[in-house]
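Marked as duplicate of an earlier ticket. Keeping the data here for the record.
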Amino acid sequence: MPNFFDETSVASKASARFQRVSARKARMIADLIRGRSVAEAMQMLQFTHRPSAVPIVTNVLKSAVANVNKTEHPDTDDLVVGEIKVDDGPIMYRMHPCARGRAGRIRKRFCHISVKLTEA
């Protein structure tokens, strides 16, 4: 897979690993804000109803904005969510009692979220 964003155009990065939300739910939110400006992305996250994933993605985006080097990029309004990736993390298995003495699996999923901000 080609890397469209070389490291010179990346203004800042942030990542959150082992987050207790499934990757599928977080990817829905990531697809909403990919390619948008930081202000527009924050506004979209504020009014999106996905209680499990929105706070986590919002915190990662805020962390990426806080990581911006202010001497190179004094105005953070010019930044764009260039790349946002949501990868699967480990799965924690729990057992749930089922009929006839059997046990069913409950899968508690984790994900890794990484954000790269680029210049507009």
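See parent ticket for discussion. Residues 54-66 form the longest helix (13 residues).
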